[in-house]
Specification:
Chain A is of the alpha+beta class and 277 residues long. Chain A is built from five helices and twelve strands. With 305 residues, chain B is mainly alpha-helical. Chain B has one domain. Chain B is 70% helix and 6% strand. Chain B contains ten helices and five strands, in the order ββαααααββαααααβ. Chain B has a two-stranded antiparallel sheet with strand order 1-2. In chain B, a hairpin with a 4-residue loop joins strand 1 and strand 2. In chain B, helix 1 packs parallel to helix 9 and helix 2 runs antiparallel to helix 3. The longest helix of chain B has 33 residues. The chains are: A alpha+beta (277), B mainly alpha (305).
Chain lengths: 277, 305
């Protein structure tokens, strides 16, 4: 028992040492030549409140390229991509067809998940500088967002033909509602290493935490990335009412009825007095 | 000035919805109708999800009918027994209606169902009203007396069992037809977001042969309670009652209704009915157009999952 534990512990220490060596060795080797560029970034607002007066807001994502070898802001040595994503959620997409003269929802596909909101900004159009597999792997750009139809028919078949037009429709509908937005020159270098980007959250942005991702690329190769969360929550009266409607629907309904009845009665009463006098 | 609606989950212009409530209120005061049949389609045209428009519409009906119901009750214009029989049917109908809303939303066919029901009802009733009011108009100008109510005739209604005596209406009829009418109207209230006066009043006059003096009061009595029940069920079952939207519509609506009823006193009855009929037909045609014309976007997101 005791021996077993010692053997196990020494095995863990040994493997950890090997892993550490493996991790440190190449970077030390590179340090000898030139320092590696990396990205450090942050978001101007870590939490956004949706109150009754919410009409959308802007968040600024800014950052810096560590060890920048760029001679000036305009040199274009580096490309930066900023992606702000809403919480992925399942959704049904329906398609209308003409049935007996009327337009009726006939076909539908349920997607297991896709982001409720997706804003992308970059120093220049992404397909000008990045390889499709970098974009695919990191879900950068509308056409690289993972959208898997759910249901038994699609197991092991992530991109069936019949789902393609539904996928395009999701992007089109989301773009129409300004929930999927692209800014091809939305990331601007301010100096050799400092950059910034402004992302607009529309009034209809779905409630839920947002993920902000920043990618640093050079010659189409991903050098470094950064990720952060932005809380997007209901607050104040807005939160109170929404919580009441979900958690105490009966009380919420009775309050609505009471307010409605009072409004109806007081208007009639006030008007009668006004007419009488 | 904008406000964020907690259930519809969108930011809307306060003045637009106050104005909409006011305009619908004015028309409902002018014509002496609830106005739900105008409100629901207009909310849908303005981008409110149909299910939220219908659920919130029920709250608007509570506000617009409660003071009228109390006034009528005080004037002894409510046949309580008849009202209660209809109400029993009404509650059952509302329950079925709210359940139908839930199932139709799940199947992705609720928007279609609402449009079809609206087009059918408004089309039929608008046309009947228009024909009737134009006839009275013609007769009135010809100087002939107008006949409003046939009495002493027998119909299939008299052959049904479960007969009850309704003192206030001076009727001895089966409880089945009033309960059935109530049920039907409750169903419509839940699925269309209306009070249903425009279906109930003709049914009470022509089918049950109730005296005109108690028809309006009794229907208002039933509408208040059915709408209250509809608000509760829509909020609990479907989460489709938006309290902020309801308050905006009600605030505009109750004020508009008062001005409308003053204006209504200055209009002649048959003129008013013709105008109302035309309005009803316009709404029906507009909704039918949306069903038939090729949509610019064939795809849509299908409700929450």
């Amino acid at each position: 028992m005791g021996l077993k534990a010692i053997v196990l512990a020494s095995a863990v220490v040994a493997s950890a040492t090997i892993a550490w060596l493996a991790a440190v060795a190449p970077s030390q080797a590179q340090n000898a030549t030139l320092p590696v560029e990396s990205v450090e970034a942050d978001v101007s607002t870590r939490s956004v409140s949706i109150t009754s007066g919410f009409t959308g807001t802007e968040i600024i994502i800014f950052g810096t390229v560590e060890n920048s070898r760029q001679p000036s802001a305009e040199a274009g040595t580096y490309d930066v991509v900023v992606v702000v994503e809403g919480t992925p959620a399942p959704a049904v997409v329906r398609k209308k067809a003409r049935v007996g003269g009327l337009w009726i929802n006939t076909e539908s596909i349920r997607f297991a998940s896709f982001p409720s909101y997706y804003a992308i900004a970059s120093t220049r159009p992404i397909d000008e500088f990045a390889e499709p597999d970098v974009l695919n792997k990191n879900e950068i750009g509308f056409s690289h967002i993972r959208m898997v139809p759910s249901g038994r028919a699609y197991i092991g078949n992530p991109n069936p033909k019949e789902a393609l037009e539904f996928r395009d429709a999701v992007i089109r509908l989301k773009q129409r509602d300004r929930l999927y937005v692209t800014a091809n020159h939305g990331v601007i270098f301010i100096g050799r290493s400092l950059f910034r980007s402004t992302i607009t959250l529309p009034p209809n942005v779905p409630v839920g935490p947002l993920t902000a991702r920043v990618y640093l690329l050079k010659d189409g190769v991903l050098l470094s990335s950064y990720q952060s969360k932005v809380d997007l929550e209901r607050a104040g009266l807005e939160r109170f009412l929404h919580d009441a409607a979900i958690e105490r629907p009966l009380l919420y309904a009775l309050s609505t009825i009471l307010l409605a009845a009072l409004a109806g009665l007081s208007a009639a009463f006030a008007f009668q007095r006004a007419m009488a006098s | 000035m904008h406000v964020y609606l907690p259930i519809a989950e969108m930011s809307v212009n306060v003045l637009v919805f106050l104005g909409l409530g006011g305009a619908v209120g004015f028309l409902s005061g002018l014509f002496g109708v609830g106005g739900g049949f105008l409100l629901t389609p207009l909310l849908i045209f303005l981008g409110i999800p149909p299910a939220v428009a219908v659920g919130t519409g029920a709250a608007h009906i509570v506000a617009s009918s409660v003071s009228g119901a109390i006034t009528q009750y005080r004037r002894n214009n409510v046949d309580l027994k008849m009202g209660l029989v209809m109400l029993v049917g009404g509650l059952v109908g509302t329950f079925i209606g709210v359940e139908a809303v839930r199932l139709l939303r799940k199947a992705g066919q609720f928007d279609l169902a609402v449009s079809l029901i609206y087009v059918t009802f408004l089309g039929v009733i608008g046309t009947l009203m228009l024909v009737e009011s134009l006839n009275t108009w013609r007769k009135a100008s010809a100087g002939a007396p107008t006949v409003s109510r046939r009495s002493g005739q027998h119909s299939w209604v008299d052959g049904l069992p479960l007969k009850m005596r309704f003192m206030r209406s001076k009727l001895y009829i089966s409880a089945i037809p009033p309960a059935f009418i109530g049920m039907f109207v409750g169903f419509l209230a839940a699925i269309m977001g209306i009070g249903g006066g425009f279906v109930m009043i003709p049914a009470m006059i022509y089918l049950l042969r109730m005296p005109a003096s108690v028809v309006v009061g009794t229907s208002l009595f039933q509408i208040v309670f059915v709408a209250t029940f509809a608000v509760i069920l829509q909020a609990v079952q479907n989460r489709t009652v938006d309290i902020v939207l309801a308050m905006l519509l009600i605030l505009g609506g109750v004020l508009g209704a008062q001005f409308g009823s003053v204006a209504g006193d200055k209009l002649r009855g048959e003129h008013m009915r013709t105008l109302l009929a035309v309005l009803v037909i316009i709404v029906a045609v507009r909704m039918a157009y949306d069903l038939v014309v090729t949509p610019s976007e064939l795809f849509s997101f299908g409700g929450r999952v």
